[in-house]
Amino acid sequence: MSGRTLSSVRNAARLLKEISVHGPEMGVTELSRRLNLGKSTVHRLVTTLAEEQLLVKDPGTARYRLGLAMYDLGNTAVNGLNLHAALTPPMNWLQDVTGGTVHAGVLDHREVIYIERLDSPHMLRLFIKVGRRQPAHSTSTGKCLLAHLDDAALDRILDGWKMEPKTVHTITDPAVLRRRLEEIRRLGYAQNLEESELGVISVSAPIRDRARTVVAAISVAGEERRLGSETHALTRSVQEAAAVASHQLGYRR
Q: Comparing C-alpha atoms, which of 33, 28, 22 is closest to residue 47?
């Protein structure tokens, strides 16, 4: 190793990359084996990274996942790919044609983090601010993102997940959710029919980058009494907006 580098910083970077590639959650023992580092060294690394909010520890499993601070750093880097610029025109268009509240979100384990938002010009009050987290199982954005995980990553997320009901329509059975996710992957869009809030529906579609990876999802939400009869047109509009954003990120069929 060069005298100009710090082994602790390099090991921390290796650890973060390992969780990013092989996560979403990993324990100290597994990280120790994969990185060929002592458990005490790994424990010090994850403790420090958790204090800096680069990692989050699950108190139930004692496993670690990437924290919100990593998203903040990543979002700055993604600006080089111009995710924000890729999202802005289709989100504006989607709000214009639907009159709904438009969001874009990314997945963090079992939650969605909303990274962009355009409020509806109508009086619907949806308290989902940029940076806020929502349970993935009860939102169209979350289900859309879960549906495009690989099988191993999805298995890890569904294992032991006690899904809290937000309304009487919320899916709380992992087996039922898995079947719904298979349908979403096949159809290319996800719906939330009063599963997170009574009287509110939403539709979401995936956004892909040049590597064909689903990096985010775009959704439009509104009152069921206003949009419920327009779900087919709504779905087509959301998919078109997602296709435009994906194209801007370099995705080609």
A: 28
Cβ neighbors of 234 (< 8 A, separation 6 or more) are 98, 100, 203, 220, 227
Do 55 and 107 lie in a common domain?
A: no
Amino acid at 46: V
Last residue of a domain, one of 39, 66, 93: 66
The CB-based long-range contact list for 165-171 (8 Å cut-off, 24+ gap) reads: 165/138, 166/135, 166/138, 166/195, 166/196, 166/197, 167/138, 167/194, 167/195, 167/196, 167/197, 167/198, 169/193, 169/194, 169/195, 169/198, 170/137, 170/138, 170/195, 170/196, 171/137, 171/138, 171/195
In angstroms, the CA 102 to CA 49 distance is 33
- Longest Cα–Cα distance in the chain: 66
Count of domains in the chain?
A: 2
Q: Using CA atoms, how far apart are residues 186 and 39, in angstroms rounded to an integer?
A: 42
The structure's pTM equals: 0.67
State pLDDT tens for residues 63-110: 999 887 776 676 555 554 577 888 989 999 999 888 889 999 999 889
95 and 141 inside one domain? yes
